[in-house]
Amino acid sequence: MSENWHGINIKGGKNEIKGNTFIFNSTEKAKTVVNYIPYSGTKNFVGRGEELELIHEKLHQENNTVAISAVSGMGGVGKTELAIKYAREHTDDYPGGICWLNVRDANIAAEIIQFVQLKMGLEVPQQDFHGNPLTLIQQVAWCWQNWQPPEGLVLVVLDDVTNLQGFAELIPPNHRFRILMTTRLRDIDTNVEEISLDVLSPEEGLQLLINILGEKRANKLSRHWEEERRSLKAFPKGSNPNNSLEVKDGEIASLRRNDGEKANIDRNDNELSTAKELCKWLGYLPLGIELVGRYIQKKPPHFTLKKMLELLQQQRLEQEAINPQQKGLSTAQRGVLAAFELSWVELSPETQKLAGLLSLFAADIFVWEWVESTAKTLNWDESDVETAIEQLYQRHLVQCLEDDGEYSYKIHPLIREFLKVKLTADGEINEIKQAFTNTFMEIAQIIPDSPTLEFINSVKKAITHLTEITENLLDAVSDENLIWAFVGLARFYNGQGLYTLAEPWYQQCVSAVKSRLGENHPDVATSFNNLAALYYSQGRYEAAEPLYIQALELYKQLLGENHPHVAMSLNNLAALYESQGRYEAAEPLYIQALELNKQLLGENHPHVAMSLNNLALLYYSQGRYEAAEPLYIQALELRKQLLGENHPHVASSLNNLAALYESQGRYEAAEPLYIQALELNKQLLGENHPHVAMSLNNLALLYKSQGRYEAAEPLYIQALELRKQLLGENHPHVAMSLNNLAALYESQGRYEAAEPLYIQALELYKQLLGENHPDVAMSLNNLALLYYSQGRYEAAEPLYIQALELRKQLLGENHPHVATSLNNLAGLYKSQGRYEAAEPLYIQALELCDRVLGTNHPNTVTIRENLEYLRAQMRKNGDNS
Asked: How far apart are CA 601 and CA 604, in angstroms?
């Protein structure tokens, strides 16, 4: 090495100075294109086609400025591997060379200078022509100016950028240079085109795992996966492949002989399913999938994917597959914990504390207001909370999701596991957990018994987090809030008619409350009551009754006779008795509940409106319409006044009043109320709800009573299908819908369609309600009516007699349904020519209808006409004789 008179160090080449110009003539080494791309341990690159195209597009925009792009994303998402993949695939597009610099915690200027000296063999001058020291920025400028070869596009990759302080001064002046960065930081600079890199899709994640596994295991998985994908493509979306298979008799034996082969396919099915679960647990993070794949690859053949998944679920991030101790050449070999730790150490202590709080959320989206509420409970500084979300978002530790102008957040599953580990070391962990659970207990407490669709949509994001609390954080819930952890979840599902989803929460509630608070506690009584109410909704009356009785006795014992909870229990037990047709047992309980509610809560209270409605419903069931009407009207007005026009309870009152008017033959008054109730239920509860099914059924019933059969049929069918879907095949309401649809078919003369439905309804009522129930009597009557219409009098008579006796026994002698049975049996005798047996029955029925329904009721008019016709026939026969 020599030093010229200007003080510039020259290394190699034939260099000369003419005037004040330094002329550099490169050496042979410098003339060679330098393509320095680091080795990657990742041999199984999967997907990312769109991202690769986007990088190339952004780096090759038509302008006269230096193109700068950044691939950003969380640790382990594959930023470096993507950049390596791009550089290797596009080497020919950069004839000026590829420069790769790892700049994490490094001086970018120094890295550029070192690259030029070591890779190109150039000696970067330390002084200018006058002997003055050159700054690093000036030396970098010299590097760009003297880059070898002197022509062609150059790709400069800055891997793992942590900040861009002073970077603007280092940008090359010549637009032949294209700069690609990788960074964990979001929105690193306004002048940088950002390409945000997310985790792999489920399909790409599975493909990556298959690629990494050993050849034998991978081939099995890959082959079965391809078969699965081909089978899905072979059928149109929404079709069922199984329904299109035809098996001829001769093929059955050969299919049976292939049982062994089928079992093998099932095992592959399980292996493929486990592979999918494994990728899902890893959150489709390339780093996690690669680590786990390499770990499995080193294991003996009997080591299953199921075993791997179990180990991860038990040991979490401490499992050695994703937390290897040795350091290797690739990013992946550093391990998940190490990858996340790089971002963790950059956070302020306040942000680290809040990040630990975020690990308590379920692996689902959450709303930032919940974080703020919890932080407020903990007396954390608001500005620290704001700073925390900025730091976490910028480093891709949280994702921000936007939906129709509303923002929510999400954490990657493995980052959540990482933050859980950090939280365990926090001295305030118990206080943080308690504050977190309190936030959600406040949400649980505002979920009503009958949530509207709007309310359900407003609170549904909280449900997975409430579930997480009941399953994993129950110890942090206070005694006074314990019941709400379960009740909130149960109400959310129960209010939508999703009884099977609500049941386990009510059952767990009973167990948890008894275990922590003891047998004698008001919350135990409430748990009994809630579970009983669910069973009641499902028509499981025998299971509900003992729970209702236990709740009532416990409330009386703990709270005294005069308490709103006692009134509620009385009302609920009365409702159960009414549904069982035990009207004499129900009435005094309803009256006690009404009086107690008025005494304790005042005349103007929703519980008073409920009691008025329920007592009216009992009177309606007993045929005491005049007593029922004023109570229904009071309940409706009170509900409108207290709850507003748009409330499910108002819809219920409208429906009940309409049913009363229909039973009185006041069809014109009933129809608009039924329609209002149906529209209100749809609006508030959504199309798929038991109350909507009830409204459809009732409106259809009205149309059928008016002879509007074509309007009634689709409503009946909708109601039946909805009830089966929501309540299951075995429910009293399903039996009701079967009965009503059968009655419609009978009225249309479609007897063959009606009979099996009537029989199904009867059997279902007997099975669910027992032999002695008003609905069983109704079913017997209706089936008899069908047989009568078909002229099958011998089959009809015993059913009519059973229905009449059962109605007298259950409803009393003075009930409209008894009049109906008397009329029907009389009609049968008349058709058989047994006029003397028919006449007294018609007379009894007419007297009963005159007394109960009034002389102008359609039923009264019909029976009067039947009696007159009978007497005319008797006179005619007498004259003939």
From this structure: 8
pLDDT tens digit sequence for 741-799: 999 999 999 999 999 999 999 999 998 888 888 889 999 999 999 999 999 999 999 99
Query: What is the maximum span of the chain, computed from C-alpha positions, in angstroms?
Result: 153
Domain count, the chain: 3
Q: Which residue segment(s) compose the domain that 604 sits in? A: 561-644
**Chain position carrying tokens 């003080």:** 7
pTM greater than the 0.85 cutoff: no
Q: Which residues pair with 180 in a beta bridge?
A: 69, 157
Q: In which element (H, E) is residue 414 found?
A: helix 413-424
The SS3 of residue 593 is: helix
Q: Write the CATH number for 594.
A: 1.25.40.10
Given 279, 303, 334, which residue is the final one in a domain? 334
Q: Shortest CA distance to 617 belongs to which of 645, 658, 666? A: 658
The answer to whether 538 and 579 have CB atoms below 8 angstroms apart is: no
For residues 766 and 859, give the distance between their C-alpha atoms in angstroms, rounded to a whole number: 28
In this structure, are 79 and 120 located in the same domain? yes
Residues 25 and 133 in one domain: yes
For 74, other C-beta atoms within 10 Å of its C-beta total 26
**8 A C-beta contact, residue 572 and residue 589:** no
Cβ-proximal residues to 599 (8 Å cutoff; 6+ apart), any chain: 562
Of 55, 172, 59, nearest to 112 (Cα)? 172
Strands 2-3, 9-10: pairing is: antiparallel
Cis link prior to 95 (omega < 30° from 0)? no
Distance of CA 762 to the CA centre of its chain: 37
Query: Is residue 228 assigned to a domain?
Result: yes
For 367-380, the pLDDT digits (tens) are: 999 999 999 999 99
